[in-house]
Inverse folding.
């Protein structure tokens, strides 16, 4: 018995990309993202921010 | 899909739709163009997420973009080459797991472009309504044409000697 739906799925999947192609295209797209991530914290936000800005400050001093 | 995590949203859309979009372009223009055009589509996906302009229905949105990009690509190629504006016959698939899979792929590739497009969209999970909106035809016309496309596909399978799949 010929299952046309299954044959169609098989036919289309024959044109699917390899895993390497899938990964390569994704790698080329994601560098276009800004790289900025929003983080939310429930507690100790002041301490976390102080730590982040201390690290930023250190980096800027090194650059200067 | 979470709106709060762009990467996670992108991953989900990519995982759900990349294969079908790539197969669509591959059947139209071959593997190299399929990579470039699929990349362009998913770059638009990323930009939509990044600018918080996510559509309600990613599947329909992505395939609408794919059809528009295919038409732009054809127009650009026509302008560059002054060639006849037709879709090239797709290349044979590069699969190595059995003659029957190659035969069904050939049967699909041998269909007229419009029928192939309808079958790919249906297989990708678009409803008749969504296909109609993508191709600017009514849902009932989609159903009628799909019926004929399936019939033609079946006949080509039988011509390839495939009687059970």
């Amino acid at each position: 018995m010929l299952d046309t739906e299954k044959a169609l799925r098989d036919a289309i999947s024959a044109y699917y990309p390899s895993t390497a192609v899938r990964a390569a295209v994704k790698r080329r797209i994601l560098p276009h993202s800004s790289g900025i991530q929003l983080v939310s914290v429930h507690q100790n936000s002041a301490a976390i921010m102080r730590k982040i800005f201390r690290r930023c400050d250190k980096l800027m001093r090194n650059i200067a | 899909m979470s709106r709060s995590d762009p990467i996670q949203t992108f991953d989900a859309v990519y995982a759900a739709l990349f294969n079908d979009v790539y197969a669509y372009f591959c059947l139209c223009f071959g593997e190299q163009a399929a990579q470039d055009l699929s990349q362009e589509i998913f770059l638009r996906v990323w930009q939509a997420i990044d600018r918080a302009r996510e559509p309600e229905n990613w599947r329909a949105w992505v395939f609408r973009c794919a059809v528009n990009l295919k038409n732009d690509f054809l127009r650009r190629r026509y302008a560059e080459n002054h060639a006849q504006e037709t879709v090239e016959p797709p290349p044979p698939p590069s699969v190595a797991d059995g003659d029957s899979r190659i035969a069904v792929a050939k049967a699909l590739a041998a269909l007229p472009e419009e029928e192939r497009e309808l079958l790919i969209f249906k297989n990708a999970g678009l409803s008749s309504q969504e296909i109609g909106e993508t191709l600017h035809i009514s849902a009932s016309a989609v159903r009628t044409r799909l019926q004929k496309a399936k019939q033609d596909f079946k006949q080509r399978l039988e011509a390839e000697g495939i009687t059970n799949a």
Q: What stands out?
A: Chain A has a mean pLDDT of 80. Residues 45-63 of chain A form the longest helix (19 residues). The interface with chain B takes residues 1-4, 6-17, 21-22, 24-26, 28-30, 32-34 of chain A (CB under 8 Å). Chain A is about 60% helix and 0% strand.
